[in-house]
Specification:
Length: about 180
Amino acid sequence: MRITKLLIAVAIFIVGTTSCNNSNKDMEITEDPVVSTFYFIRHAEKDRSDPENRDPELNQDGLGRAIKWAEVFDPIAIDVIYSTNYERTSMTAAPTSVKKNIDVKYYDPSSIDFEAFKIDNEGLNVLVVGHSNTTPNFVNKVLGIKKYNQMDDHDNSSLFIVRIIDGEATDIRLSMD
Protein backbone atom coordinates (compact mmCIF):
# COMPACT_ATOMS: atom_id res chain seq x y z
CA MET A 1 0.00 0.00 0.00
CA ARG A 2 2.79 2.42 0.88
CA ILE A 3 4.60 1.66 -2.37
CA THR A 4 1.41 2.50 -4.26
CA LYS A 5 1.20 5.86 -2.48
CA LEU A 6 4.85 6.54 -3.30
CA LEU A 7 4.27 5.67 -6.97
CA ILE A 8 1.28 8.01 -7.07
CA ALA A 9 3.33 10.81 -5.51
CA VAL A 10 6.14 10.24 -8.03
CA ALA A 11 3.66 10.28 -10.91
CA ILE A 12 2.05 13.49 -9.66
CA PHE A 13 5.45 15.14 -9.34
CA ILE A 14 6.54 14.06 -12.81
CA VAL A 15 3.30 15.13 -14.47
CA GLY A 16 3.17 18.37 -12.49
CA THR A 17 6.66 19.42 -13.47
CA THR A 18 6.24 18.58 -17.14
CA SER A 19 2.92 20.31 -17.67
CA CYS A 20 3.14 23.10 -20.19
CA ASN A 21 1.86 26.56 -19.52
CA ASN A 22 -0.64 27.11 -22.30
CA SER A 23 -1.70 30.58 -21.20
CA ASN A 24 -0.25 32.05 -24.39
CA LYS A 25 -1.42 29.75 -27.17
CA ASP A 26 -0.09 32.11 -29.82
CA MET A 27 3.47 31.56 -28.60
CA GLU A 28 5.42 29.47 -31.06
CA ILE A 29 7.37 26.62 -29.50
CA THR A 30 10.45 25.94 -31.57
CA GLU A 31 11.90 22.93 -29.76
CA ASP A 32 11.04 20.43 -27.07
CA PRO A 33 12.33 21.15 -23.59
CA VAL A 34 15.33 19.21 -22.31
CA VAL A 35 14.18 17.22 -19.27
CA SER A 36 16.57 15.43 -16.93
CA THR A 37 15.22 13.54 -13.92
CA PHE A 38 17.43 12.35 -11.09
CA TYR A 39 16.21 9.86 -8.47
CA PHE A 40 18.41 9.77 -5.37
CA ILE A 41 18.18 7.11 -2.68
CA ARG A 42 20.35 6.03 0.21
CA HIS A 43 21.36 2.39 0.45
CA ALA A 44 18.91 0.09 2.19
CA GLU A 45 19.38 -1.21 5.76
CA LYS A 46 22.88 -2.55 6.30
CA ASP A 47 24.11 -5.37 8.51
CA ARG A 48 25.27 -3.69 11.73
CA SER A 49 26.39 -6.89 13.50
CA ASP A 50 30.11 -6.06 13.10
CA PRO A 51 30.79 -2.38 13.89
CA GLU A 52 34.36 -2.80 12.58
CA ASN A 53 33.17 -3.79 9.09
CA ARG A 54 33.42 -0.67 6.92
CA ASP A 55 31.76 -2.37 3.93
CA PRO A 56 28.83 -4.42 5.24
CA GLU A 57 26.20 -6.07 3.08
CA LEU A 58 22.48 -5.47 3.49
CA ASN A 59 20.55 -7.21 6.24
CA GLN A 60 17.23 -9.01 5.56
CA ASP A 61 15.22 -5.78 5.89
CA GLY A 62 17.62 -4.10 3.50
CA LEU A 63 17.29 -6.87 0.93
CA GLY A 64 13.52 -6.48 1.13
CA ARG A 65 13.78 -2.71 0.72
CA ALA A 66 16.09 -3.07 -2.30
CA ILE A 67 13.42 -5.23 -3.93
CA LYS A 68 10.76 -2.64 -3.03
CA TRP A 69 12.88 0.08 -4.66
CA ALA A 70 12.94 -2.03 -7.84
CA GLU A 71 9.12 -2.12 -7.68
CA VAL A 72 8.99 1.66 -7.24
CA PHE A 73 11.24 2.21 -10.25
CA ASP A 74 9.61 -0.49 -12.39
CA PRO A 75 7.16 1.87 -14.20
CA ILE A 76 9.84 4.55 -14.65
CA ALA A 77 12.06 4.52 -17.73
CA ILE A 78 15.48 4.59 -16.04
CA ASP A 79 18.36 5.19 -18.46
CA VAL A 80 21.35 4.88 -16.14
CA ILE A 81 22.07 3.73 -12.58
CA TYR A 82 24.94 5.06 -10.47
CA SER A 83 26.16 3.69 -7.15
CA THR A 84 29.11 4.16 -4.88
CA ASN A 85 31.39 1.13 -4.88
CA TYR A 86 30.27 -0.39 -1.57
CA GLU A 87 28.45 -3.66 -0.92
CA ARG A 88 25.37 -1.97 0.63
CA THR A 89 24.91 0.51 -2.24
CA SER A 90 25.62 -2.07 -4.94
CA MET A 91 23.15 -4.48 -3.32
CA THR A 92 20.53 -1.73 -3.14
CA ALA A 93 20.94 -0.91 -6.83
CA ALA A 94 21.08 -4.57 -7.94
CA PRO A 95 17.35 -5.46 -8.12
CA THR A 96 16.58 -2.34 -10.18
CA SER A 97 19.65 -2.97 -12.34
CA VAL A 98 18.58 -6.55 -13.03
CA LYS A 99 14.94 -5.64 -13.63
CA LYS A 100 15.92 -2.85 -16.05
CA ASN A 101 18.86 -4.74 -17.59
CA ILE A 102 21.15 -1.77 -16.92
CA ASP A 103 24.73 -2.12 -15.70
CA VAL A 104 25.54 -0.05 -12.61
CA LYS A 105 28.12 2.70 -13.07
CA TYR A 106 30.25 3.40 -10.02
CA TYR A 107 31.10 6.90 -8.84
CA ASP A 108 33.26 8.36 -6.10
CA PRO A 109 31.31 11.09 -4.23
CA SER A 110 34.56 12.74 -3.10
CA SER A 111 35.83 13.35 -6.62
CA ILE A 112 32.76 13.65 -8.85
CA ASP A 113 32.45 16.72 -11.07
CA PHE A 114 28.79 17.58 -10.48
CA GLU A 115 28.48 19.94 -13.46
CA ALA A 116 29.94 17.33 -15.80
CA PHE A 117 27.60 14.75 -14.25
CA LYS A 118 24.58 16.93 -15.05
CA ILE A 119 25.79 17.51 -18.62
CA ASP A 120 26.61 13.81 -19.19
CA ASN A 121 23.10 12.84 -18.05
CA GLU A 122 21.16 15.64 -19.73
CA GLY A 123 17.80 14.43 -20.96
CA LEU A 124 18.03 11.13 -19.08
CA ASN A 125 16.27 9.46 -16.14
CA VAL A 126 18.99 8.66 -13.63
CA LEU A 127 19.01 6.62 -10.41
CA VAL A 128 21.78 7.45 -7.93
CA VAL A 129 22.40 5.27 -4.86
CA GLY A 130 24.51 6.77 -2.10
CA HIS A 131 24.84 7.24 1.65
CA SER A 132 23.33 9.33 4.45
CA ASN A 133 25.93 12.05 3.96
CA THR A 134 26.56 11.83 0.21
CA THR A 135 22.97 11.64 -1.04
CA PRO A 136 21.76 15.02 0.31
CA ASN A 137 25.02 16.65 -0.78
CA PHE A 138 24.61 15.23 -4.30
CA VAL A 139 21.01 16.51 -4.42
CA ASN A 140 22.17 19.96 -3.28
CA LYS A 141 24.88 20.06 -5.95
CA VAL A 142 22.46 19.11 -8.72
CA LEU A 143 19.96 21.70 -7.44
CA GLY A 144 22.68 24.35 -7.18
CA ILE A 145 21.62 25.28 -3.61
CA LYS A 146 22.15 23.88 -0.11
CA LYS A 147 18.66 22.66 0.75
CA TYR A 148 19.08 19.25 2.38
CA ASN A 149 21.13 18.25 5.44
CA GLN A 150 22.74 14.91 6.12
CA MET A 151 20.18 12.15 6.54
CA ASP A 152 19.50 10.36 9.82
CA ASP A 153 21.58 7.19 10.02
CA HIS A 154 18.42 5.05 10.05
CA ASP A 155 16.70 6.80 7.14
CA ASN A 156 16.76 4.25 4.35
CA SER A 157 13.42 5.20 2.85
CA SER A 158 13.85 8.70 1.46
CA LEU A 159 13.58 9.33 -2.25
CA PHE A 160 14.77 12.67 -3.59
CA ILE A 161 13.62 13.55 -7.09
CA VAL A 162 15.24 16.41 -8.96
CA ARG A 163 13.83 17.36 -12.33
CA ILE A 164 15.68 19.84 -14.50
CA ILE A 165 13.72 21.29 -17.40
CA ASP A 166 15.74 23.57 -19.67
CA GLY A 167 18.10 24.35 -16.79
CA GLU A 168 15.39 25.05 -14.17
CA ALA A 169 15.43 22.59 -11.27
CA THR A 170 12.52 21.45 -9.13
CA ASP A 171 12.70 18.89 -6.36
CA ILE A 172 10.69 16.82 -3.94
CA ARG A 173 11.54 14.47 -1.08
CA LEU A 174 9.32 11.43 -0.56
CA SER A 175 9.46 8.50 1.82
CA MET A 176 8.71 4.84 1.21
CA ASP A 177 7.66 4.36 4.86
